Amino acid sequence: MTTDPLLAAYDEQLRTDAEMAGAQGVRREGPLWWGVFEHGGFVSYRDLGGVEGDDLDALIARTVAHYRDDTDVTSFEWKSRGHDCPADLGARLLAHGLAAEPQETVMIGEAALLDVAVPLADTAEGPVVLRRLEPGPTAAADVARMLAAQESVFGNGRGPSLAATLAELETGRSELWVAEVGDRVVCAGRLTPVEGTEFAGIWGGATLPELRGRGIYRALVAARARSALQRGIRYIHSDCTDMSRPILERSGLRAVTTTTPYVWSR
Fold this sequence. Notes:
By secondary structure, the chain is α+β, with helices and mostly antiparallel strands. Helix content is 32%, strand content 30%. Strands 1, 2, 3, 4, 5, 6, 7, 8, 9, 10, 11 and 12 form a 12-stranded mixed beta sheet that branches. Helix 2 links the parallel strand 3 and strand 4 (75-81). The two termini are 36 Å apart.
């Protein structure tokens, strides 16, 4: 059992049913939650409840069989954390045909630490303007530009669809934020409050390479943190790459664990 209060809050509030928000269908299997989403399958759990060895292999095999035989998803993700037990979980997932994606760092901290003024200098093409996207007649075009900017940075082709992202915007499940120079999106990200918890996640932070190092990402983080505080949210969490981790650490967020997605593809 962890003695880190932030990690304990993360495990208690942000795993299992919290990760199933927006799922098209959810099933339970032992300690696991099997979800099906618009973008594919997702496996969540608070912990594995002591399942290990042959029993763990059987649980993984049932999970693969479920998504392969009972759904039409093209892939599913088993999102492991660095403090999960048993220690050989990753090796067993690999043995069942899942592939490890790059490890990221889970960062958590008080939203108030991120609510800072970040001055932005003009670019050669004009000023940088931050704004929250709103439902309305231009929403589809705005979201399309946002997703195109993120895909140009991440380039994995696995981001959410235009329809799913518009639904997030229109239902209020996520706030969508962009930094623009003229009509060009140069940085973008989400703020996703987690209902029934003290947390909101910041996701998808992506700045065009030629405009990095100007504080644009940090300014977009600050804008989202300010909005979270206005909602009464206490904590911000994010799964960070090595690129964004130093920015959040300088703002006072702390690494509490790591996360490695293991992905099965049909």
